[in-house]
Design a protein that fits this description.
By secondary structure, this protein is mainly beta. 6% of the residues lie in helices and 29% in strands.
Length: 259
């Protein structure tokens, strides 16, 4: 998938980037991407625990491949994904559990793959700002990201949210706001979160939703559901599928506001 060129430059499908240390497996190095880098391919730096400090994906990069930085446990700072990136592959940063800085995702990302940030428990983001043009959030994408706090707004562009997408994000405790285009939400997508309100700015028209979306047996909080008129079909879907299989007995205080 990649190899070391003469000048200490990695090559991936015609694109280059460099590492500050010599050798194919740097013992301790921070990544410095050279101008013109467009793609970070599958498994490019997977398991390279010697890569350290912050990680910044520069403006020129358009896509981050599957497993690109999976289990890079030496990365310890911020994770910044520039506005040039359109897609983040499956498990791209999974298991980078020592990243303890801020998570910033560029506004041109349209898809976040399955398990893209799974178990990145130290990444910090208060009221995570998702890209305004994102269409899909993959299964387990942010599972166990304990550093996500506050509220979460799903942009109007999002069509699908995979199962367990935000499962285990137990510090998300504010308002969950759905955009206007969500058609599918997978099982247990928000299980383990402790949102105090679920709201929408336009009628919700889910066509499919999995079981246990908000399952959290330890929670005793009140969930206030605010959905506008025109959401009647969604109301019954939430009531019959979501509440009937997850919240009854574990989230006893549910306040409904429709219209």
């Amino acid at each position: 998938m990649y190899y070391l060129n003469n000048g200490g430059v990695y090559y991936c499908f015609g694109k280059y980037w460099s590492v500050t240390a010599d050798g194919e497996d740097p013992v301790a190095a921070s990544l410095t991407f050279v101008s013109g880098t467009k793609i970070i391919c599958d498994e490019a730096f997977s398991g390279r625990s010697g890569l350290t400090a912050n990680l910044e994906i520069p403006e020129g990069v358009a896509s981050i491949g599957t497993d690109a930085f999976k289990n890079c446990s030496g990365l310890t700072g911020n994770l910044t994904i520039s506005s040039g990136v359109a897609s983040i592959g499956d498990s791209a940063f999974e298991g980078c559990n020592n990243l303890v800085g801020q998570l910033t995702i560029g506004n041109n990302v349209t898809s976040i793959g399955n398990k893209a940030f799974k178990d990145c428990s130290g990444l910090l983001s208060a009221d995570l700002e998702l890209p305004s043009g994102i269409i899909s959030i993959g299964e387990h994408a942010f599972e166990n990201c304990l550093g996500l706090t506050g509220s979460l707004a799903i942009p109007n562009s999002v069509v699908s949210i995979g199962e367990y997408a935000f499962s285990g994000c137990s510090n998300l405790s504010g308002t969950l706001t759905f955009g206007s285009s969500v058609a599918f939400i997978g099982s247990a997508a928000f299980s383990g979160c402790v949102f105090n309100a679920l709201t929408a700015t336009s009628p919700l028209l889910f066509t499919e939703a999995g079981l246990g979306l908000f399952y959290n047996p330890a929670s005793t909080a009140t969930l206030t559901v605010n959905i506008p008129a025109g959401s009647e079909q969604t109301f019954f879907l939430i009531l019959d599928i979501i509440l009937g299989n997850s919240l009854v007995g574990s989230m006893p205080n549910v306040v409904w506001n429709i219209g």
